[in-house]
Amino acid sequence: MTHRTTITLDDEVYPFLNDIAGDNRNTYINELLKQERKNFLKQTLIKANQEKASDLGYQEELKAWEHTLSDRND
Fold it and tell me: How far apart are CA 2 and CA 34, in angstroms?
């Protein structure tokens, strides 16, 4: 599914977009947004992992689970 939208570009940006994307402005902008979304998700995951790494209660719980898992009989 696709959606149509209208955007306003600054005078200095519009010629750059035309130069770099040519007739494929939609594709170029879509690819930029996909990459930015990927970067955003990556940064969100990094931040969440950093928060968990500094959470002492969470770290203690992980140690308890690691100990429990190592007690398994295979």
Answer: 14
